[in-house]
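I wish you would study the pair of lines that follows with an eye to the fold:

===
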Amino acid sequence: MIDAHHHLWDLEAVHYPWLMARGVERFFGDPTPIQRNYLIEEFRAEAAAEGIAGSVHIQVGAEDGWAEARWIHDIATQSSDWPMSHVVFCDLTSEDRTAQLDRFQSLSTVRGVRQIVGRAPGEDAQTGTNALLESPAFLEGLRDVGRRGLSFDLQLVPELMGQMAKVLSQAPDTRVALCHAGSAHDRTPEGLKNWAGQLKSLSALPQVTCKLSGLGMFDHSWSVESIRPIVSEVLNQFGKDRVMFGSNFPVDKLYSDYSTLIAAHRALVPRNAHDAVFHQTAAEFYRM
């Protein structure tokens, strides 16, 4: 089994400004309990106990994306018994994008890039990341990622899906992993209906795969029943071969232990889809 979406951090090795901001509430809640080192040993102990045997590390807002990438690469190459690929941060609108991507690709463990388009409406209004959708440089960056054989991890909110689908349709050779099932931040019946409708614009694109990850960020007291509509809709729209499981630890560790999290997903994913969702999709997408 593969965990297709998790994070690690060593606060002495790499600086994460968002993580170390004291007393700042985030869109996913209060980060205080995770404002400490979260290293491969702790993650492996939690994940391996539930049958996970490899993983995909996703960039997590380091001040220096190259420093984070090198640190993760060193961990991955030193853990020969734990296959780990990773996704790095690159500003696809930057003038030195080509040089940045060349450097990242010198690391054999790098498989893709993530540049967040949207986290939650409140934070997005402050950060302005939604403006990427209007950027010709961002579109060209997405195309460049695809030409290089890299993938793109996409994080955004449902309100942006239609516009994002139009952008991605112009970069059809770039494989995309939709993080956190598209961040359904409104869990009311109407909110979930709107999310499902917007999701169709992305699921219609064959290059897009969806992650069942981060479902606790907008529902801190989630249960199997509360996330059932999301898991069911994702599987219905994408099919089992375009869906993969990710824990989003340690962020989702704020609201669940690993055992509870994976047990819920195992219960909700049909048995005949387990191999795809918990292994094969991620293994193929991230070339593990």
